Amino acid sequence: MSSEPRNRQQTLALRKQFIGSSCKLFFPEDPVKIIRAKGQYMYDENGNQYLDCINNVAHVGHCHPEVVKAAHQQNLLLNTNSRYLHDNLVDYAQRLSKTLPEKLCTFYFLNSGSEANDLALRLAQQYTKHKDVIVIDHAYHGHLTSLIDISPYKFRNLDGQKEWVHVAPLPDTYRGLYRENHKDPATAYADEVKKIIDKAHRESRKFAALFVESLPSVAGQIIPPSGYFQKVAEHIHTAGGVFIADEIQVGFGRVGKHFWAFQLQGEDFIPDIVTMGKPIGNGHPVACVATTKDIAEAFSATGVEYFNTFGGNPVSCAIGLTVLDIIEKEQLQAHALRVGNFFLELLNQQKAKHPLIGDIRGVGLFIGVDLVQDQEKRSPASKEAEFIITRLKEEFVILSTDGPGRNVLKFKPPLCFNTKDAELVVDKLDMILRELEIRKT
Amino acid sequence: MSSEPRNRQQTLALRKQFIGSSCKLFFPEDPVKIIRAKGQYMYDENGNQYLDCINNVAHVGHCHPEVVKAAHQQNLLLNTNSRYLHDNLVDYAQRLSKTLPEKLCTFYFLNSGSEANDLALRLAQQYTKHKDVIVIDHAYHGHLTSLIDISPYKFRNLDGQKEWVHVAPLPDTYRGLYRENHKDPATAYADEVKKIIDKAHRESRKFAALFVESLPSVAGQIIPPSGYFQKVAEHIHTAGGVFIADEIQVGFGRVGKHFWAFQLQGEDFIPDIVTMGKPIGNGHPVACVATTKDIAEAFSATGVEYFNTFGGNPVSCAIGLTVLDIIEKEQLQAHALRVGNFFLELLNQQKAKHPLIGDIRGVGLFIGVDLVQDQEKRSPASKEAEFIITRLKEEFVILSTDGPGRNVLKFKPPLCFNTKDAELVVDKLDMILRELEIRKT
After folding, report:
1. Which segments cross the bilayer (chains A, B) (predicted)?
2. Over the stretch A296-312, which tens digit does the pLDDT of each residue have?
3. Model's pTM, two decimal places?
4. Do A146 and B144 touch (CB under 8 A)?
């Protein structure tokens, strides 16, 4: 669109001039200019190829030709709001319903995961007529005012905690309250939620929801112990609230074994509301809330219309449908499982060699490498993590960190990421870890 | 995308099954199925052509070939987040800055007008360190939790008014507190805002913002008296708050004389924050907040990142840039002025003939026809308005109503709407008004 291509410095100068500085760049000291991408690879203005290990939005691969084609074909025909009947909307809802437990059969379409979580909160509060929400420590549910309120990751740095928001401990069995040596961490962490509920009840507070990322992400790529969701769901239901599973980071087959990450907890677990975003449209702004008939009916009983101008338009739905088609046709869920397991194996070999690696955890292509200064104390190796991602970028591998200590290397690549890519990353990682060890000695 | 085309009833049945019933259809008794659209026309599954008088989102015309092409070309290349440098983002911000007063030179990109208004509210509250907001009666600023709080159109039917939200009278000189016979309605309405501020100050409350649609839309297509914005801006500034102009419905040349509707108030008026949505991407989910360096810096001084996953991606920006190109190349702003004036003239001829028409108001292609049961009392002719839009639909003209009495016919068509379209609508309207008059006698 530009009259003539700019060099990196010129683009950066204009960005500093015109874009709010709260919008951060990756590698702010030496940002990357990306001009095209394909599959799991991105290319800068000099033609350098980067391996993308983190973009879970480009779910079926950057610029997947079938997604691009579906968008174009629908853009040529019609892009309007959902106040007219259109088959794409109903086809898409029906297709999504087939991926979910039968109970989750009512859909709302929106433009972003944040919009989805905001609506989920409204649905829960309307249905229960309660206000209070339990969230998990370090959670991030979105950038909107209502979501900053329920995101400890954000509100700790801003206005602080609202009286209707309660923070439960992160069910992290590596660095949390109850660890791998505990005989029943799922129950122990669930009991913490129960304690919060009991305390709040003594203060006459009432619960609308427990809001949980199916796999806590910015909290450090955490995998809650199996059975935890069933137990906390029971507690929140007893308190009259609902269970909201935030699948925005991790849904759509990423975890390999299942289509939805909440299903890792077992077939007997069914959330009351599921929110979807990021990967759903492979980069196109789409999002979705799935819920039960009862909750949807309580919401419409207010008589107040819910209208989302762009939400559920025929283009977004065509794209969403095509993403589902591709996941199926290219068997990306099975691929995520296979490549993820291979990747975990390679990483575990590294763990045996490098004392900096404290923990390797993951399911499918959602993997965290927890770096520690000390294997015993498990103190976060934040600086080392920062060094590694900076060095990896010089090696044309894009990776980033998560966790409160920013010491967890997070892998959530496009699902077309393959075993060769995994080998390349692990080789580079090995090399850089050796560099670090030489420096230290 | 569907395996075989469905008839209207089949699509409707699936919609009832899978889509939350809070999401309303136009003409719920007999909804329309639209399968394609071009310019100002939409087509149903039987090939019937409808004239679209209301879709301000399809700003440069449904499926404008250049917008479709820009989306496709960029989709083929790259669609990723704004954490990498990209020229489309900075080009787009720079281009938008040229349409605005110099002071409004910092931009944030998002996915919906609602996201934009939510951020505007955060910016104002962060900058001023105050909480309270003044909004205009019957205003609608979006579907998010934070915006329902500041939208009397919504909160009156839900949780009610928060203590930090103050509602000022709608500056409606036809049906409001101060009318066309008042010697200075701008000052009179502005004094009402001043009164609210003074009263709240006595209660030790502090103001973050006055939030105003540049032309109140769901309130009934209202044109605030000239000079009103300057006066209320002075009051809110004195109180330490900022002026937020919501241009989501009416920006981008619709008003003809100016590119932004707030500019109708005079060149000496400059808002502190401007929010944009709907027409900005011709249907693609894009939105924008423009503000001053000072406000942006106060926001980033918190140290908290603002990250919007899809906001400002290269595809959205390519589309936004192309929309600006088309407005310029096709001279749509001048066209809106010319066609709007012609349309207003035709409508005023009808007013002389039909006592049901109480008021005709408009600028460019933002026009309201206020229907009254009684010219003296100005009581809303709600049922008649409903009858008219239902009959117009049978005549293949899509129109809808607005205003608290749902008695204002609202025209906000794609900007390619032409004089022939205006003639057609007015002829149909004349015919239907005569039908109504015959029924009444």
Report:
1. none
2. 999 999 888 999 999 99
3. 0.97
4. yes
